[in-house]
Structure formats: C-alpha cells, structure tokens
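Margin note: ligand = PTJ.
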Amino acid sequence: MTKTKIPKTHPRAKSLQVREKVNEGYSEGIMTEQGLIAHGRGEAFDYLLGEITISEATIAIKVAAATLLIAKNPIISVNGNVATLTPKEVVKLAKNVGAKIEVNLFHRTLEREKAIMKKLKSFGAKNVLGIGKEAAFEMNGLESSRRWMDPNGIMISDTVLVPLEDGDRTAELRKAGKTVITIDLNPLSRTAQTASLTIVDNIVRAMPLLLEETKKLKNIENDILKDMIKRFDNKVNLGKSLSYIIKRLEKDSVIRVNAQ
Ligand code: PTJ
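Resulting structure:
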C-alpha cells in the first residue's frame, strides 16, 4: 500500500487524510472497490456542504443521541466504509448507549466480516454480531445480502443506526417497526428520505459529535429526551439541509459570475 504524507497546510488536508484511511481500509480487505465509489459520491456531496457540519445536522445529531439513549434495544449496523472510517467511535458509542454491534454487508464475504470484526475488536469491542452463519435469519422483502440478520441483533432491535446505507433495507427495517437513524451526506438518497432520522453529514465528523452528545444527554430524564424527539420533524430538517446546499450554490455562482 502506498502511503502519502499529506501536508497539513494543504487547503483540503482533512479530506485527503480521510482518503488515506480509505486506502488503508481497502488494503486491509475491509472496504470494497464499490465502497471507494460510494466514498467518492459522499465526497461530492460534502463539497457541496462546504465540508462542515451544518446546523441541521447538529440538531439531528442531538435528537439521534436522545433516540439511542431511550431505546430499549439499540444496535449499530456496520459495513466496510463505516468500519474503515470510524471504528473507534462505533465501539465507544455502543458502550455509551448500551448498543450491540452487528456487521451487515452488501458485498458479503466471510473474510470481510472477520476483518471488520478484528478491526472493531482492536478498538475494544467485546461482541460483534452478524458473522458468517450467526446471521441466519432473512429479512422479508429484501434480496441483497443485507437481508441476513443475527437473531440476537438487528432482528430483535427497536432502534438501528445504519450509516452509509443503500436504500432498500432502511425501508424494510421501518416496515418492521424499527426506528432507523442514518448518517448520509446525500439528502436525496433513498436512505436519507426513508429513515426515521437523517443526519446529513460526513460520518467522520458526525460520529465523534454523536458520541459527545450521548455523553451530555446520558443523565437527562427520559421524558425530556422524548420531548426533544417529538418536536423533531425529519422531513423538515432534510428540506432545510437541501435548501442550505441550494442557497450555497446560488451564492457561489453569483461570486463566480461576478469574478469573470
Ligand atoms: O461494505 P458493504 O459491502 O456493505 O458496502 C457498503 C457500500 C457503502 C458500498 C454500500 O452500502 C453502497 O453501495 O452504498 P451506496 O448505495 O453507495 O450509499 C452510500 C451513501 O453514503 C451515499 O448516499 C453516499 O453519498 C453516502 N456517503 C458516502 N460516504 C459518506 C457518506 N455519507 C456520510 N459520510 C461519508 N463519508
């Protein structure tokens, strides 16, 4: 694997450092070629956001923390991109909110599942569900490999955090009565549109913030957390995220036209 030293002074140093991580995840057999493409799509949307956590995402992160804290049986679903970009945060968040962790892959192989489990365990995860034959239950209405669930994990959960998800499963999880939280840079994706709660942000920024929020809200009464959740409207928040991008582009195009 070729490692490139990214100069700290580079205007887009953070994004390039994340690419180095992606490169590492790919070399370790955690991420797939398809995952690289998905990352590129994410980068494009992040560029439109200005590579910052916008206020709509900050609000969604707070509500997501409250949702995970009041859940009876929360779980974090981990794919190759998630395990590559935020393995430490996944493990810490799971501990903080008492969530289980389950590996769930679109491009499913036992080797990848084991590599992801190893990565999560290297950051302190005790139990990682969904490996090989453990994921023996099929989700109705789904034909991809994502349909396989662990009987002790996603199947019996009430709240699922599914960052960087690919559409169909979010809808099926919701049909099964689960609360679905996603992190997705694309506010137009099917996952973003069908989740119960959508954080439009880069996972590398959102996960540390989500972790901090759960620490802050941990000792707050459940009734107050429930009230926060009740007052949140995902569709409105998503609409505002999209408006943010549109306004930013309009402003940017004015600057460019005037500069010509
Ligand atoms: O590891 P596997 O086999 O389970 O496969 C994982 C991928 C991500 C390849 C698979 O789930 C996939 O193909 O996903 P999609 O359909 O490309 O959707 C991924 C979504 O995540 C897209 O809407 C991207 O814009 C978004 N995305 C990509 N990178 C990030 C992101 N969102 C937040 N943070 C990112 N860094």
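The pocket of PTJ is lined by residues 32, 34-35, 38-39, 41-42, 45, 79-81, 85, 105-107, 164, 166, 183-186, 189, 202-203 (CB under 6 Å).
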